[in-house]
Amino acid sequence: MHKGGLVKSDKPLILDTTHYIPVRYARRLKEFDMGNLTRRIDINILGEEDKPKILEALRNIEEAVKRLKRERVLAPIRKDLEVNMQTVFRKQGRLFAKGMVKYKGLFSEAFGESEIGNIAGLVEIDTVEEMTGVIHAGSSAAMEAGMSAAAEWGVNVALALKNPRAVEWLESHAAEMVTKINETTRGDIASLVKRGVEEGWSYNKTAREISGRYEEFAIGKPQLHIESRAHLVAVTESANAYGQGNRQSIDTLTAAGLEMEHDWNTMGDDLVSEGCLENEAAGWIPLDESFPSGDDEEPRFPGCRCYVAYRRVGTGEG
Fold first, then answer.
1. Domain that residue 279 falls in
2. How far is Cα 90 from Cα 95, in angstroms, rounded to an integer?
3. Which of 209, 215, 224, 309 suits 60 as a labelling partner, its CA being 20 to 30 A distant?
C-alpha cells in the first residue's frame, strides 16, 4: 500500500487471523482513507467466502483509525489538565496544612469534624477560581475536539462553540465538577482524620498523613489504568467534554433533517466493564435511543475510556 491506496495484485491478501486486519494495511494506519481503500481493492481476486472477511477487516481498520485519531487529539488535552490539577491539589494540601497550625497545641481535644470542615471550606474558597479555570479550559479544548469530529458533515466548529447550549454546558459543568471534586476531597480527609483519632495519632503524624494524601491526589494510583485523582479528573473531564461536543454537533445535524444513529465502542481489553460491553453489543441504534446502560454518550463512569461513534442512517459509514 502507498499513499494512493491499494494496487491491483495477483497475490492473495495476507490477514492477521487474530483480528482479521490486513497486516500490510495495519502498518500504515496514519495514511488510512476508508473510501479510497474500498474503491481500490480488486475484489475479483477474492473468493465469495473471503469478501465478508475483508469487509470485516476494513471495518476493524476504520475503527482503529477513529480510535487513534481521537486519542491523538485528546492526549495533550488530558496531559495539560492532569498537570494543572496536580498543581491545584498540591496547593490545597499546603493550605490545609497551614490551616491546621492553630490546632497544634490542643490537637487531641479540639480537632474534629467541625474543624476539618472549617479548614476545608477556607481551602476551597482560596482555590475555587483556579480549579474552575483549569476544568473550564480543559473542557473547552476537549469540546472543540469533539465538535471537530463532526466537521466532515459540515458542522461549523467556531460557530458551534459560541452556541448558547455549549457555553452554558461548559460553565455549569465546570462549577458542578469543582463542587464534586471538593466534596470527595473533604470526605477523604475527614475519613483520614477519623482514623487518626481512633488510632491515637499525634498532631505531627496527622499533619504528615494529610499532606501525603493530597500528594497522592496528584500522583497516587487508585485504579489500574488511572495514575492519580488528577489523572482521573483529566481522563473523565476530557471524555465528558469530547462526548458532549460531538453529540451537540450531531444534534445540530438532526435538527437540519439528517437521520443519524450511534454506536458504543470500548477499548477491547480486559479492563472494559460488563456495562460497557453490553453497550457495545447493542451495535448501531437510533440516535434517540439510549444505550443499555441508560447513557447517550461517553463516559459511562469516571475513568471510562469508551467513545460513541455516529453515522447517517442507511449509509453504513461513520
1. 259-318
2. 9
3. 224
Do 205 and 108 contact (CB within 8 A), yes or no?
Answer: no
Stretch 196-214: mean pLDDT: 90
CA distance between the termini of the chain: 23
Q: Do residues 306 and 265 lie in contact, with contact meaning Cβ atoms separated by under 8 Å?
A: yes
> Sign of the C-alpha dihedral, residues 51, 24, 262, 266?
positive
The per-residue DSSP string of 212-241 comes to HHHHHHHH--SSSS---HHHHHHHHHHHHH
pTM of the model: 0.79
- Shared domain check, 121 and 264: no
Q: Which amino acid is at 19?
A: H
Which helix H or strand E contains 16, and what residues bound it? Answer: strand 15-16
Interhelix angle 51-100/229-255, rounded to 10 degrees, is 130
3-class secondary structure, 139: helix
Task: Judge whether 254 lies within some domain.
Answer: no
Three-point CA angle 51, 53, 57, nearest 5°: 115
Task: Please tell me the predicted confidence (pLDDT) of residue 154.
Answer: 75
Q: Is residue 295 part of a domain?
A: yes
Residues 135 and 281 grouped into a single domain: no
Going 109 to 111 to 115 to 119, the CA torsion angle's sign is positive
How far lies 129's CA from each of 77, 84, 125, 171, in Å?
20, 13, 8, 12
**Taking a C-beta distance cutoff of 8 angstroms, is the pair 317, 309 a contact?**
no
Per DSSP, helices labelled H in 23-148 are: 23-26, 34-40, 51-100, 107-110, 113-148
